[in-house]
Amino acid sequence: MELETLKDLYVHELKDLYSAENQLIKALPKMAKAATNRQLSAAFRQHLEQTKRHAKRLEQILKSQDESTRAPKCEGMEGLIAEGDKMAKEDGEDEVRDAGLIAAAQRVEHYEIAGYGCARTYAQLLGDKRGARLLESTLQEEGNTDKKLTKLARSVINLKAKKLKKPAKEESAVTATIKGLVKKVTG
């Protein structure tokens, strides 16, 4: 796609966001499963449903512009999701991994906020009032999700991660593993 006009850039941004949302639709169930904190897992599942609505809105806007949803894969989201997957697979304490999952999710939210903010501004400048309204709705929801994740991190997850102490140096890795397993079993 050649970017010769602001409308070209607008359509490009919409398609990039659409690709990003569809990648996220596939990633969020994995993040929900990886989260050990029930509130965090529920937040990821709730955002999955929201993300599906975001993709539908983008479809509506693209259709109103007589454009298809076909586009190259959003590489930015691909990289952010890869980081989240890596965090989900990290070996370590559940509380610390959950804090890392929140950080990864917030990077995604900030990326989306930037993209939706730009697309909304383009829509406004181009006179696409309906598109601008739909994009503003999504932008608000993404911001609210970011705030919800921050609240969850500050009020619960990061505090639990902070309480964890590193095993004493003389304690063997086997002893630390056994203690970790006992902790998981006994809660």
Structural features, described:
With 187 residues, the chain is an all-alpha fold. It has 6 helices and no strands. The protein is elongated. The mean pLDDT is 92.
Q: Which descriptors apply to this entry?
A:
mainly alpha; 187 residues
Secondary structure topology:
Blueprint: H1 6-34, H2 38-64, H3 75-88, H4 94-126, H5 129-163, H6 173-186
What is the residue-averaged pLDDT?
A: 92
SS-based structural class?
A: mainly alpha
Number of helices: 6
Low-confidence stretches: none
How many E-type strands?
0
Largest sheet: none
Helix-strand sequence: HHHHHH
Oligomer: single chain
Indicate the radius of gyration in whole angstroms: 20 Å
The 3D shape can be described as elongated
Helix content: over 70%
Q: Hey, roughly how much beta strand do the residues contain?
A: under 5%
State the end-to-end distance: 55 Å
Q: Summary?
A:
The chain is 81% helix and 0% strand. It has 187 residues and is mostly helical.
